Amino acid sequence: MNRLPGDAPITVLLVDDHELVRAGLRTFLELQPDMTVVGEAASGEQALALVAGVRPDVVLLDLVLPGMSGVETARRLRFAHPEVKVVVLTSFAGQDSVLPAVRAGVAGYLLKDVGPAELAEALRSVHAGGSPLHPTVAATVLRQVNSGVDPLTPREREVLRLIARGLSNRLIARELVLSEKTVKTHVSAVLAKLGVADRTQAALLAVRDGLVGS
Q1: Measured between alpha carbons, how far is 52 from 80 in angstroms, rounded to an integer?
Q2: Strand pairing partners for 58?
Q3: Which residues of 37-63 are buried (b: 16+ CB within 10 A; e: fewer)?
Q4: pLDDT in tens, 25-52
Q5: pLDDT tens digit string along 134-163?
Q6: If you write DSSP's letter for every residue of 64-114 in order, what string do you get?
Q7: Residues 132, 125: contact at Cβ < 8 Å?
Q8: Nearest 5°: CA angle at 62, between 39 and 23?
Q9: Backbone phi, psi, residue 90, to 5°
Q10: Angstrom distances, CA of residue 202 to CA of 1, 44, 95, 161, 190
Q11: pTM of this prediction?
């Protein structure tokens, strides 16, 4: 995900109850020229208290936390601060973890075995409007997703395929040689036809429908 030298850095809040994990993430992310860590929290309650003050672009969230669960934390963050993107970074890819997180409105779901470069690129993708999903996570969810996707036009299917790859509207427009306004219209139509609320859920359906590899 290319960013211009003058762009403001992507601000990240780390939420994980293991201090060593947070320290490692902070060290790596602050080596990225376009990212800065603006805070750390060891619980969901701490994260909610911090967000209003540090105003992160992205919250990188573990699901297993003391007290309030990661899913409930994500749900409350999305309700109170809809402009903040929540990305799950966890060790769990089972349906009991993935489905509630997706329903809570997370913008991405990654596993802790993700490579450093992949993590950085995923955060850039989310910041640009994408929805990165670990392939194992997608496969887990797809086994539970109901069938019966409403028919899309060929152009809408192209847009859906690129959504599933994690591309933002700007990058989809570049890929398909369309205006961003036209892409936004297509994205709205895709979400409406699929009966989903966000790009993450649309991406999951795209994988299930065979538009991208699972």
Answers
A1: 9
A2: 12, 85
A3: bbbbbbbbebbbebbeebebbbbbbbb
A4: 999 999 999 999 999 999 999 999 999 9
A5: 777 765 555 554 444 445 778 888 898 888
A6: --SSS-HHHHHHHHHHH-TTSEEEEEES--SHHHHHHHHHTT-SEEEETT-
A7: yes
A8: 45
A9: -145, 175
A10: 21, 27, 17, 9, 8
A11: 0.68
CA dist., res. 172 & res. 203, Å (int): 14
Place of tokens 């990240």: 12
Closest CA relative to residue 214, chosen from 143, 153, 120, 119: 143
Q: Side chain identity at 52, as an amino acid letter? A: A
* Phi, psi values for residue 12, rounded to 5°: -130, 135
> Which tokens in the block code for residue 177?
């040689």
Alpha-carbon gap, residue 179 to 172, rounded angstroms: 9
Q: Which residue, chain included where needed, has tokens 């603006």?
A: 38
Length of the chain: 214
Are residues 68 and 167 in contact, defined by beta-carbon separation less than 8 angstroms?
no
As a whole number of angstroms, the distance between CA 25 and CA 21 comes to 6
Write out the two tokens for 213: 């590899």
Q: What is the DSSP letter of 160?
A: H
